[in-house]
Amino acid sequence: MLELLFAAAVALGRLPAPEARQGVAVDAAHVYAVDNSVIAKYDRRTGVKLAVFKGGRKKFRHTNACVVLDGELLCAVSNYPKTPMVSKVAVFDPGDLKLKRIIPLEGQPGSITWIDRYDGSWWAGFANYDGRGGVPGRDHRATVVVRFDDNWREEARWTFPPEVLARFAPYSNSGGAIGDDGRLYATGHNSRRLYVLEFPEDGEVLNLVATIKVPVRGQAVTFDRTRDGVMYGVNRKTREIVAFRLPAEIKWTAD
Predict the structure, then answer these.
(1) What is the DSSP string of 78-97?
(2) 244/2 Cα distance (integer angstroms)
(3) Beta strands in 36-94 (DSSP E)
(4) Which residues lie closer than 8 Å to 48 by C-beta, 6 or more apart?
(5) CA 40, CA 20: separation in Å to the nearest integer?
(6) Which one of 6, 9, 93, 109 is most buried, by most CB atoms within 10 A?
(7) Burial degree of 160 (CB within 10 A; 0-12, 13-18, 19+)
């Protein structure tokens, strides 16, 4: 399998967090550890836990990824591994982690794993699986990225290139974030690889630009918008939030 593999990303710091199983969100002063039905807010500097949301497994069975946007904490929530697949976006107040509203996403092409905002649109990843959590007639190759308008109406969708899908199998795309360069930075379920992908001008298959070794094993990732080229992820085995810097070869900011 041919990969353009850059030097490894550099780990910048680690924060122990029992909730660091699925993903992490970050703002200027805080990090938010995500574990299915639980979200915990920590002070980035001291590591002190400041707030906790416990939603219960019935309503928040699988919160996979969150992101802080315009003063709100938005989270991708699904019913994985139950079927039929149900996806929604939960919106929280990042101050006290109070739930503000739920945005149901009906009739989607998979199980939502991440969301982001870029260039006036919503973006989200929808996973499909070979086994547990999958549905008849679809496997990991049906995993897609969807662009929505402000009202969460689909505008376009793309699938991953074969070489990335092969790495996802038998699971799927767990994390994703749109960089300032307009590229998608995506992870699988448990591999130490971050895939840098471009959206094609024509066609429905993303273009693989580079594969980066990262100090996290899959799961959700997010950009630290206060530091150039810095991303956050989690190590679910050690229950740590990890900050890392992208290799210098990756020019992630827009021209």
Answers:
(1) E-TTSSS--EEEEEE-TTT-
(2) 25
(3) 38-43, 49-54, 62-69, 72-78, 87-92
(4) 42
(5) 9
(6) 9
(7) buried
Contact residues for 237 (Cβ-Cβ < 8 A; gap 6+): 217
The residues spanned by each domain of the chain are 5-245
- Residue for token digits 């574990």? 35
Residue with tokens 């649109």: 121
**Structure tokens belonging to residue 73:** 């904490």
User: Which SS3 state, helix, strand or coil, does residue 167 take?
Assistant: helix
- Strand residues in 93-224 grouped as ranges (E): 99-105, 111-118, 121-127, 144-148, 154-159, 175-178, 184-187, 193-198, 207-213, 222-223
Classify strands 10-16 and 222-223 as parallel, antiparallel or unpaired.
unpaired
Fold that domain 5-245 belongs to in CATH: Neuraminidase (2.120.10)
Give me the tens of pLDDT residue by residue for the chain, a chain 255 residues long.
345 566 789 999 999 999 999 999 999 999 999 999 999 999 999 999 999 999 998 899 999 999 999 999 999 999 999 999 999 999 999 999 999 999 999 999 999 999 999 999 999 999 999 989 999 999 999 999 999 999 999 999 999 999 999 999 999 999 999 999 999 999 999 999 999 999 999 999 999 999 999 999 999 999 999 999 999 999 999 999 999 999 987 655 544
3-state secondary structure of 35: strand
Beta bridge partners of 72: 69
**Residue 250: closest CA among 234, 228, 235, 233:** 228
**Sequence-separated (6 or more) residues with CB below 8 Å from residue 138:** 110, 128
